[in-house]
Structure formats: C-alpha cells, structure tokens
C-alpha cells in the first residue's frame, strides 16, 4: 500500500498518446501494483484444476506444461465451436474505436492495451494466425501473430486488467462484449494453471465451506448471532434468524463478504431486520443456509465449468430445504450468474414455485423460471404496497447517490428498483452525471476478482471514472454516502473513496432501508446501524 | 509513414494497374468483363453463405444480451422495451434500430480530462453520422446500379435515381449518393489516420476496403461526369452478365474495366474480411436475444454434468461442529 502513488502522481501518469511502436512490437512488462499474485497450488488442487504448482508472474519461468501451446490451441478451437459469441466476436470487429475511451481501465491508465478493441486483438491476433487463411498466408500484415510465451504473458496481464463490466459492449455497434473475450481468455489461461490467487482461493473455499471466505458453518452462525446482539443494542429488538431450516417459505442467499467486513455487515444487519419485521408482521419464514452461504461466484471469473460447480449449491440447497423460492441479496456478479446462467446450467428448478410475495400477492413474472428474486425487487414491491413501516428521517443525515453496479445494470437491467427503494427510505438523493450511471455506469475498478490488495494501483486507476463522478456530486450537492447493490462494491469502494473522495462513505441499499424501518416493539433509536448518533430528528433540516 | 495503409494503398494501385493494363493493353476484356465478375459473384455468395453457416454452427449456450435499459419486472416500473427487450418483437425492434440506424453508435461519447483531474463525457456523433452516410450512400448507389441489370428499369429504381439527382445540376445530372459516398469514405479514412487511438489499433485490413471503395466511387464518378463512357455498351455487358449471355461490346473504355474489377475484388474479398460485420450483426448474441432469461429457461445444447461438492459431503466434514452450534443436520 505504501507504494501507491499519490493521487496527483497517478493522474500525471495517465498518458492517452499511444507509444511510437505498434502494439505488437511494444513489449509488455508486468508491473508491481498492477497485477495480482499467482494462484496458490493448494486451491488449484482442491478443485482438481490443471497444473497446480507454485509460480510467480515476475519469474521468467512460469512452469507451464510442455505442450502448453497445443493445449491453448485446442482449447481455443473447442471454445470457437461451443460459443457463437466467441466466434462472431473474433471475426466482425471493424476497429472503429467507439469502445476505446469507454473502458475505465483505459481512461485511468492510458495503456492502449486496455482499450477494449486491443484487449480483444490480443486474442484475435492469435486466432487469425491459427484459424484463418489470411492470417496464415499474410501473417503480421493481416494482424496475425503466433502464440509465444510473451504473448501468453501479455494475455495474462491484460485479461486480469479487465473487470468484465460490459460498458464497451453498450457502445459497440455489433455488441461485441469484451467480457465474453476476457471470460474466454481466462478460461484458456486456466487450462494451463494461470489463475490469480484472489480468485482461485475463494473458489476453493466456496467449494468446500459454501462461501468465498471459508467460513465454516458454526462460525457463520456465530457471525450472524453477533449481528443479532448489535441490532438489539440499537433497536431493543432481538431478531431470530433461522439456519438450514427445512420447510421455510424462502431461502435467502447473499454474498459472504457482507457477513464479514464493514460496511457490508450493516447491509447484512439490514436483511436480518427486514426479515424479522416481515416475520413479526406477516409471518414470513425466511431461512439462511450455511451450505449455500455464498451469493457471489468467483468461479465465473475462472471458467463456465467452475461457475457451474459453485452455483449448483443454490438449487441443491433450495431443493433439500423444500422452500418455495429463493431470495437473493445485493451483489453484482452473483446476479449476472443468476440472470444469465443459473437456470440454463443447473435448472430447471421444477421443485420450486414461481415466486409470489405472500405479503403483497405480487407474482414475480420476470423470475418465474429461475425462481429467484432480487432483494431490491422484493423490497420495492413491499414499499409500493405500503407494507413497510418506514421513518426516512433516520437517514436525514445522509446525502445519498447510487452507483449502478455493472452486472445488475448491463447483465440484467435492474435500474429502477433500487432507486425506488432509496427514494422511499431517504429524502436526500442525488444522481451522478447521466453518462456515468444506469447502462453507462462505470465499474468500481475492482470487479471480476481483481479486488486484492497487491493490485491497489490498478484498482485506483480503474476506479477513477467512478470516483470522479462521485466527487462531482459531492461538490455539487454535498453527497456523503455512496449507495450500491453489490458486495464487491462495498468491499472496495471504501479504499477508492479514501483515495479519491475521502469525505464519502459507502452503504448498501438494505442498510438504508433498515435505518428507516420501524421494528415492532423497538426502543427510541438514537443511532443508525453503524452506532453513529442520529442528529436531532424533529428538526430535520440540519443536514447542511 | 504508416506501413499499414501504405500496404493497402499499394495493393489497390496494383489492382488498378492489373485491370487497366489487362483490359486496355493486353486486351483481356473477356477476362475482366465476364470471367472475373462471374468468379467474384460465386465467391461472394458461397463465401458469405459459408461464413454465416459456420457462425450458425456454433450454438448459443447462454442468453447474454447486453441490457441497455430497465428490465421488464414489476408492472408499475417502466420497461425499456427497445434497449432491453423481453420478447421476440422487442428484439426485432432493437435489431432494426441497430442495423438501420446504428443505435449503439448513436450513444457514442468522448471522454476528456479537464484541468488534469476532472473527467467529462460529451456526445460525439461524427462517427455515427459518417458511418450512416457511408452505408446509406453505398446502398443508394448500389440500388441505382440496378438500372444496368434490368430492362425495362423498375419504376422504383427510376424514382430513386430521380430523388438522388434532385439537385438537377450539371449534365449529366449530379447524383448525390456517389459524392456522399466518396466524402464519407474520405472521412472514415481521415478519422483512422488522425485519431491517435483509432490509428493505433488499425490494421492493413481496415484501410484496404476504404481505398478499394474510394477507387470504386472515384472511377464511377469519373465515368459519369468526366470520361463519359459508352453507357449503352456498358449496359449491354452488364445485362449480358445477368441474363447469362455474356457479351463484350466494343468501345467500352479501360476505366470501366477498372471499376468492374474493383467491384469484383470487393465482392471476392468480402466474405473473408471484417466486411462480414454485415452478416455478423444479425448473429450477435448480445443484441439478438431477449433479456428474459429468468422468465424463460434458455437451453444449452452441450450442457454437461460437472463435479460438485454435495451437501452430504459438506455435512460429513462439518457435522460435529454443526451439532455443537445447534445447526440442524440430516444425520445425527
């Protein structure tokens, strides 16, 4: 961390002028602060993934299998045959450059290989060499180059400098999605054991204990019980969460990051208070699982197969417990997985019912096949029907903006629900500029498994456009709270804000809901969920 | 000097010389007027079909549309039916906007750093406008050329030609589309060499079609307004081609054969190049699928079973700790 350049130094480093040498002739240097450590062999082994060994990206020798070129070539071919997206995206790019300055990593680093078009060309150049006639005959003039160790290292460096956020795909006239390119690139790298540890170890943990952090069942319960005490201190009400309960109405699954670290913990407390309220008022029976105690899925950042292996627990647990449907917490890539992959990979979920809110009677038609509803959809419906007892004044000390997380925005389209919820639980809400929100939202810069500590400089570069927009509303409207529906956001934004806009704090949407939610039998609440004193409630105008 | 566009420029100049010398000097008019155009058409049709079928032979295992607007969810929330369609009709509308109006390019912004620390984004529609002008001018030029392949000329084509020449300047009357095409190609070329990012990512394959199309438009304009070729002779040849009774009339100049050769090269080159974006856009899974994967199950034809960590295996490992913590277990 001490190596992290100061903000002005980092800004001065950004140079959008491309180098004098062509990109194929510009060697890639793996630079400290911009990459994540190599995967721990134990984690790779636990998942029976290939080529588990100790290795270091800075070493010349990456300890690759002897036939690594052949493995990559065959893996490439197999994926071209299995994924139309991959094949079409290898062929139809016209290099119009519309994507170039849409990438947060390019804006924040100026490194031309972070332009989405060039990130894809890193793969395309080898594709042309191996699979097209023009590339085979004309070589470099046709944009082709053979796969060498240097090319492979370049792949590794730049496919772990992409957060699969899809912002470029919104602007591409053919919908070329760099996320798909990066997903394929990482799959290929994983075939020869080239993962980063920040992904490999959470995946191994999740496989074994049910969550990324490796929290064992008894400890998971302990952690939530600790929140029960905290909630009681603040509200005087004791929640009684249930675990692994058969026959509950709903199974609730959320990222384990929120169980573990601030400020996600307050969002977790928010879920518990909401469920307690619904149980007391309407008899809704929600249960938590220790086996499926992870909403997130770092398998998604490894390969489709690994994603499927981890995701399988959600339906398996819902089936075992005999619940009616599944409710999902606030998380970004978790919802991309649920929305785009879960039912296709691990469905059909015939053992579940099409989700109906027993409280409002609303049928969640949009989730009738997957049978999984987002907490913001669920809460928005409750608020719309006046089923929550809310006192938004407990959020009066906050001036809130909302960050659309990449995956719910561009891999699902959930834009209005969280806004509706926020605007009903707090009075002071301000949008960031239009080109930085909704489908054009900027990534936190740390998604897709890049939220490690050793790549902090990369994260601060990638998060620059987001932080810049936050700073704008901070200066214009005095915004002091950045809300989001993503556990990775909650884990990474505190560091990003501290670096770029230190006056702004980070919250989940359900934390705001719980601050406003009146629990039956509560004492007078003098602090928010963070234990911070609430300014005089009746005055209400002391927010300036 | 940029070796990439020089390579392409030289290639097009060489093509010009081949056609001009071949038809004018060597007298290979039958080769350039009949054999090569026929071959080009066959390569074009077979090549495009091959490429599209090859793409289509790869399945779409997952439904992965880029959702560029609000999902269809609760009934009281306004759904972005065009940018995040939930039905086939919506997808057709989205694709229509994409294919005919370049919807995604219409979003284009330019990021700028102001004062060293403030980012701003402004709408930047020149590329959209240039691309639209290029494609539509090309389409009109193409349709106008139907008059060379039909007798009598369909009235729709005659009306189009009239509209295209509505300025009624000069003799023969100026057809706007040809000049717009030339101007748009020039813009796209200049953009490619002056925008540092686009220049940096450009390949020879990005310049070649620009030079070639410039050559086609330029020779076309030259024939119509400057050298005034024998139109009757030209039509005799083109009609002969479509009626499969090829003839090579006397008196049609070398520049015509250059034009025809350029078009033939473009057709033959098309299936093996980035120009296939014409077909690819229709097969792009981020645009041509509805965003309804939670409502309707998408089937992956190659979905296969994977090794999972079952609940039983999990409980086996943690049973004692679970019992101690009061968590329910399957086997006491």
List the helices and strands and how they pair.
The complex is a heterodimer of chains A (544) and B (332).
Chain A: H1 7-13, H2 41-46, H3 68-82, H4 84-91, H5 104-109, H6 116-131, H7 133-138, H8 149-159, H9 167-171, H10 178-191, H11 197-209, H12 217-235, E1 242-243, E2 250-253, H13 257-260, H14 264-282, E3 286-288, H15 304-321, E4 325-328, H16 332-346, E5 372-374, H17 375-384, E6 400-403, H18 406-410, H19 416-425, H20 456-462, H21 464-477, E7 481-484, H22 487-500, E8 505-508, H23 509-516
Parallel strand pairs in A: 1-3, 2-3, 2-4, 4-5, 6-7, 7-8
Chain B: H1 3-25, H2 29-57, H3 88-101, E1 109-114, E2 118-123, H4 126-144, H5 155-164, H6 176-194, H7 196-201, H8 204-226, H9 231-242, H10 254-269, H11 277-280, H12 311-324
Antiparallel strand pairs in B: 1-2
Task: State the total count of DSSP E strands of chain B.
Answer: 2
- Helical percent range of chain B? 55-70%
Q: In the CATH classification, which architecture of chain B applies?
A: Up-down Bundle
Whole-angstrom Rg of chain A: 24 Å
CATH class of chain B: Mainly Alpha
* Range of strand content of chain A: 5-15%
Calculate the terminal CA-CA distance of chain A, rounded to whole Å.
34 Å
Number of domains of chain A: 2
Name the chain pair whose interface involves the most residues: A-B, 121 and 100 residues
* Poorly predicted runs of chain A: 538-544
Number of helices of chain A: 23
CATH topology of chain B: Fumarate Reductase Cytochrome B subunit
CATH superfamily of chain B: Transmembrane di-heme cytochromes, Chain C
Calculate the terminal CA-CA distance of chain B, rounded to whole Å.
79 Å
Number of helices of chain B: 12
Order of helices and strands of chain B: HHHEEHHHHHHHHH
Let me know the average pLDDT of chain B: 95
Q: Give the neighbour order of strands across the main sheet of chain B.
A: 1-2
Rg of chain B over CA atoms, rounded to whole Å, is 28 Å
């Amino acid at each position: 961390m001490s190596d992290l350049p100061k903000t002005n130094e980092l800004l001065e480093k950004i140079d959008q002028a491309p180098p004098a040498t062509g990109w194929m002739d510009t060697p890639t240097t793996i630079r400290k602060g911009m990459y994540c450590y190599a995967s721990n062999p134990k984690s790779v082994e636990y998942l029976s993934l290939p080529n588990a060994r100790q290795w270091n990206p800075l070493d010349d020798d990456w300890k690759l299998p002897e036939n690594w070129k052949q493995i990559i070539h065959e893996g490439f071919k197999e994926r071209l045959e299995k994924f139309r997206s991959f094949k079409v995206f290898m062929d139809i790019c016209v290099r119009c450059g519309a994507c170039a300055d849409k990438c947060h990593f390019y804006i924040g680093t100026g490194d031309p290989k972070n332009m989405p078009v060039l990130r894809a060309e890193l793969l395309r150049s080898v594709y042309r060499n191996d699979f097209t006639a023009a590339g085979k005959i004309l070589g470099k003039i046709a944009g082709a180059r053979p796969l060498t160790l240097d090319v492979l290292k370049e792949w590794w460096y730049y496919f772990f400098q992409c957060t699969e956020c899809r912002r470029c795909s919104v602007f591409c006239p053919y919908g070329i999605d760099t996320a798909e390119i990066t997903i394929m690139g990482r799959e290929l790298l994983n075939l020869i054991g080239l993962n980063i540890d920040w992904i490999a170890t959470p995946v191994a943990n999740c496989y074994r204990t049910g969550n990324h952090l490796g929290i064992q069942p008894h400890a998971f319960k302990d952690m939530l019980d600790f929140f029960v005490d905290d909630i009681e201190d603040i509200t005087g009400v004791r929640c009684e969460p249930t675990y692994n309960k058969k026959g509950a109405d709903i199974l609730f699954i959320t990222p384990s990051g929120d169980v573990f670290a601030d400020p996600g913990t307050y969002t977790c407390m928010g879920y518990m208070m909401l469920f307690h309220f619904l149980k007391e008022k309407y008899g809704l029976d929600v249960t938590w699982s220790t086996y499926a105690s992870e909403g997130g899925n770092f398998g998604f950042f490894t390969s489709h197969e690994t994603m499927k292996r981890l995701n399988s627990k959600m339906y398996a647990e819902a089936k075992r417990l005999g619940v009616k449907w599944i409710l999902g917490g606030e998380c970004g890539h978790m919802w991309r997985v649920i929305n785009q992959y879960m039912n296709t990979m691990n469905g059909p979920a015939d053992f579940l019912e099409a989700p109906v809110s027993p409280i409002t009677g609303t049928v969640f038609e949009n989730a009738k096949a997957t049978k999984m509803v987002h907490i913001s959809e669920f809460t928005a419906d409750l608020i719309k029907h006046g089923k929550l007892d809310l006192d938004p004044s407990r959020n009066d000390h906050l001036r809130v903006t909302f960050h659309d997380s990449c995956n719910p925005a561009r891999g699902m389209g959930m834009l209005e629900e969280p806004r509706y919820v926020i605007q009903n639980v707090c009075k002071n809400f301000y949008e960031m500029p239009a080109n930085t929100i909704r489908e054009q939202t900027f990534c936190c810069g740390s998604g897709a498994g890049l939220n490690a500590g050793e790549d902090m400089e990369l994260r601060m570069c990638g998060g620059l456009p987001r932080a810049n927009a936050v700073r704008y509303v901070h200066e214009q409207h005095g915004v002091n709270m950045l809300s989001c529906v993503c556990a990775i956001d909650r884990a990474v934004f505190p560091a990003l804000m501290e670096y770029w806009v230190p006056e702004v704090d980070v919250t989940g949407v359900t934390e705001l809901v719980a601050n406003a939610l009146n629990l039956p039998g509560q004492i007078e609440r003098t602090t928010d969920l963070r234990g911070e004193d609430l300014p005089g409630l009746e005055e209400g105008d002391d927010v300036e | 000097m940029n070796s990439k566009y020089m390579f392409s420029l030289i290639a097009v100049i060489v093509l010009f010389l081949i056609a001009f010398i071949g038809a004018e000097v060597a007298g290979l008019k039958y080769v350039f007027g009949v054999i090569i155009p026929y071959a080009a058409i066959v390569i074009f049709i077979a090549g495009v079909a091959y490429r599209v079928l090859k793409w289509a032979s790869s399945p779409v295992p997952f439904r992965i549309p880029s959702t560029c607007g609000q999902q269809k969810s609760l009934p009281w929330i306004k759904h972005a039916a065009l940018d995040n369609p939930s039905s086939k009709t919506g997808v057709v509308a989205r694709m229509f906007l994409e294919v005919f109006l370049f919807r995604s390019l219409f979003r284009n912004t330019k990021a700028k750093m102001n004062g060293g620390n403030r980012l701003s984004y402004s709408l930047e529609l020149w590329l959209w406008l240039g691309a639209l002008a290029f494609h539509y001018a090309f389409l009109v030029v193409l349709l106008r050329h139907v008059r060379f392949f039909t007798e009598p000329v369909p009235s729709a084509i005659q009306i189009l030609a009239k509209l295209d020449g509505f300025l009624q300047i000069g003799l023969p009357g100026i057809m706007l589309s040809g000049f717009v095409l030339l101007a748009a190609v020039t813009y796209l070329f200049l953009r490619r060499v002056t925008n540092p990012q686009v220049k940096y990512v450009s390949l020879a394959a990005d310049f070649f079609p620009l030079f070639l199309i410039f050559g086609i438009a330029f020779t076309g304009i030259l024939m119509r307004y400057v050298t005034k070729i024998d139109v009757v002779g030209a039509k005799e040849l083109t009609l002969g081609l479509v009626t499969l009774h090829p003839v090579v009339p006397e008196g049609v100049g070398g520049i015509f054969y250059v034009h025809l050769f350029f078009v033939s090269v473009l057709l033959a080159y098309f299936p093996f190049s980035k120009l296939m974006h014409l077909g690819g856009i229709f097969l792009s899974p981020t645009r041509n699928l509805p965003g309804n994967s939670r409502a309707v199950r998408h089937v992956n034809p190659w979905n296969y079973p994977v090794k999972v960590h079952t609940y039983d295996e999990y409980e086996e490992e943690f049973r004692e700790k679970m019992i101690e913590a009061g968590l329910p277990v399957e086997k006491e």
